[in-house]
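SEVERITY: medium
COMPONENT: batch folding queue
REPORTER: lab tech (J.R.)

DESCRIPTION
The queue accepted two submissions in a row. Attaching both inputs and their returned structure tokens so the on-call engineer can compare them side by side.

ATTACHMENT 1
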Amino acid sequence: MRTWPIILGLAACGSHASKLDSVEGGTDALWDLAPDGTEVGIVASPKAIRLVLDGVTAAQKLFATPDFAPMKPTANALIGALLGTPDSTPAAAGLSADKGFAMFITSDGVLGVMPVGDRDKFMATKHGTRGSGSDSDTLNGNTCKPIRELYVCATTEKLFDRLGKASLRGKAAALAGGAGDVEIYAPQLPLFGGGPGDLALTFALSPGAITARGMWTGKPAGSLGAMTGIVAPKPMIANAAGFVAADLSKLVGGLPPIPIAGGVTFDALAGSLAGPISAVIPAGTVDIQVTAPLKDIAPARTALEHCKDLGQFLDLADQQPANACRFKMQSASVLELEAWVDEAGKALRLGAHRDAPSAGAVLALTPIGEELAHGDWTAVFWGRGTMVNLTGITPITADVPPAGAAALHAISLVNELGVGIKVDDKGVRLRGVVRTVWANPPDVIAKVLAIPGADILHGKSTEPAKAIAAGASGSPFAADFTAGQGGLMVPAAALGIASAIIVPAIDSLLGNGGGDDTMPPMPTPADDPTP
């Protein structure tokens, strides 16, 4: 199987009039355009294109603010690659918010449909060669031309004849478990170190939010394969702003015998774990309540009895409670937790206060939070809230570089993040959600965006955020403020790790933020069959 990564797809067209005329109908009509031999197909409905182009406009405004200046070079490179220049508009670039997009990758090249509303502007933006009348255009060595209401491109002329000869309508939605505004389907794709399987991903878009469904029918190898058939414990979700649940029984073996404390080693402590681990963060608190059942309490109890030895791994608190070990967690803010052994429950426990666990504010889970909480997942996490509410957290006092403030400000714009993954004999199933501040009314969005990252770091954002929530009691942000910052701690850590890896990779791919405003040439496979 051959596939090629493409930043912006050049697309394809075909000769089936009924299918071409129905493309405005949505993803099903777009899948009807797939050529035979499609290895990877990606379609996006007109609704998805509208939301994406609206998002580009919102990003241009966001990165023009002082707080996001450190991120502006990378943002400019991405926007410039799409619109020609960082300050252009979708309309000026010839793009239409009323047309869908499709790209189909085959072993012989690529076909697709571009959301082009103005052919002249699009070709000028991409520095292509405009054909006269209905003649074909040339763009980076690819052939493009209007066919009825579509603007289509192909890497080779012969691919135009294959448009619409596959039967992919509904396949992505059926396999993933639900339709989306953006859908991806790839038959017999090898992933996760295992054999090939069919892959389907569907993304439902709404202003400020994305929910995802996915399924891959292969059998994974390695650590993921070792999790096959394992079911995570159900978290206690009453008044929860966030939770995590996983069974690590298949992954704790093979750790090195490095001393931890009191003669206990990493492998001995890992071997004492029963497997299932869960954590719940009550709404309005930063009390991360972790429960890890133990097969043998002795290793954990011994290690905690020698709390001072754990100082080589943890930032210990100045005041230590009896029969527990209290330590600090510091990133954007300072948080203290303590660890102890629940001998009656035969579990290792973590929490803000052993003897006075927080009950949390009354807060219902979002619909997808409920779905993730009650599903039979191999591993799952979910959280909602807002980083601008620092109730219960000691803010840092030191100055931070502009990049640090910008990063925290960016993370604070995410209000809900969750992922559930299930690995069984049918394959790997995925469910996910990302919701941002843009899911709120415009006045709420503007007020939240105006809170500087430095104020979040130094604890000055809570009061203005409280006023915003009080003035918009029915908005998602109001419930997120009630949830507090605690529910987002695990998702924020995941987002931070992803940002540290993904953003530099994108920057490098684009030439360290360079402003090359042309689309990369689409490769032509060296082993194309000769007709």
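ATTACHMENT 2
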Amino acid sequence: MNFFTRSITKIFEGAAKAFATFPAAILCASAFTIVTMIRIQLDWSQQEPYNFLFNCLHWAFASGAVFSLAAITAAQSILNHKRAFLIANLIGVSAAATIFLMLYFLGGTQSDISEPRYAVISTIAAARVSVVILISLLIFIIIAAYPKTQSDFARSFFMTQKSFIIALIYGLVIMGGASGVAGAVQALLYHGMSEKVYMYLGTLTGFLAFTIFLGYFPDFRKGIIDKHREVAQKQPRFIEILLGYILIPILLALTIVLLIWAGRTIVSGTWPVFLQLSRIAIAYSFGGLWLHIMVTHYESGFAHFYRKIFPFAALIILAFEAGALLTQLGKYGLKITEYYFILIWIIAVTAAILLLLLNSKAHQPIVLLACALAVFSVLPFVGYHALPVSAQVDRLEKLLVSQRMLEGNQLSPATSEPDLAVRESITDAVHYIAYAEDAKLPIWFDKELKESDVFKSALGFEPVWPEPKNDYKNGNSNYLGTSLNLKSEAIDVSNYQWGIPLQESYERKGRSATIRSEKGVYEINWKIDSTDDIPSLEIKLNDHVILAQDMSSFIDQISAKFPPGQSEPKEASPDDMSLILETKEITVLLVFNNIEISISPQEDHINYWLNLNALYLKENS
């Protein structure tokens, strides 16, 4: 019991010492907490005009806290005198202020969602601040590995993760206990307690967890030997067993599977989807690299074998992935997924080569390369927001010029319909460019080309998406679907006496309405069958059913004209999206806003979603 008491006491003593050890980081975290509590206090209508300001402050204080951590650690471990400590803290606070000013004056953009008068932080500005936070954390881990007589990168890397997990566990326990007490107060003493109390508790708990995170680190001052460093860097026995005797065999088995899969794929020539390949490569490379660093000092036979075999296996698998990447680039050009995969591929290949040559000495160069590529990814012209768009613009220009649709910055419709492959490529490039953010576009490109009617008017043909390659016999298809949206066209409803909105609701599973006329009372019920999701319409006149019709025949009609096969939504005319039902008493017009039919061949299940825009009714004489 005394051991656990001492451990808990040391944790909170460290949290208290963090205020003196990392004052600038704590100051930024405190400011972050205050801004968060102000936002909690304000309702959205009050907060919205200041939302951009609050977001700028949040990003600035978050980056300032992590940047200060790295700056103070560098000053203490390299110089260790009061002036350097003071300058490091001032630099940390100045960094937060500088980032705030740059975000506030240069990082805003008009939101497409909120009212135009309110700005939001642009995606690229947020990405650049995220890179600052990432690099600051990685540099901290590198600096915390000095002096070499007391630590190295692998130990510092584990210590940082250990500190985070300890802070997370304490934070969750504190939050759970505080929420339990607040819940008891609300249930037993004060029923009118605001839900914002829990938000305040979460905010304060987050701040306390951050102080615990900082407080767990040892004394980094030059010339000081802190006994806590050895404890903080030491891996518990259960972690050694978990990594050395469970995760390493699992990853070795996965390596064998991936090598066999790569060989079979090359022989058969059936390449999987690039997105699937990229995920496998990223997960294996970075998961394997993480484990390689974590077991740097393990002496077991499994660990020795893994450290030798992983770099070779990673190079083979990454070479296999490079072939898939070249195929993808040739077909669709450079997009953001391919862009990031290339950067990750460079890091992974370089890491594998350096591990073969330098062993554990490769860790720091690998991290520095990751920092450099992270900066590269947010630079003007070559960043993730610019280079893929430029590549797609070049791709689109070549396609349009080859079809004589673009001359002298003048876009014109095709005189004859291009081949299917060309139309698919043009559609793909146009929609990627149209949805790009924070990128400079050519003067001839109109972002409204993403709208089907504008696309057809400007280019002379309908947008065409590639047909999915399905193979039901081999179980390779997981989805077939029809997705229709109502075109924005006028509908003549002059012959109808009433128009009733009856939009479908998942929660209520149907809608009802009542109309009173000289003939009596009409009760309209739009119901959804819970077993097959097929809606039905029932109309009563003076409690007598005069119309009862489910939508099965209408769904068959839609499926026949628009066979399931494309997941991309398509616009349909009002005639296709309407259904007329007639009895001797009434005529009803149903107009649907959306129709979704999704089929899962493997599960042998069909889902229907018919979004009824409105029902129009007239009495027959």
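NOTES FROM REPORTER
The longest helix spans residues 153-188.
No errors were logged for either attachment.
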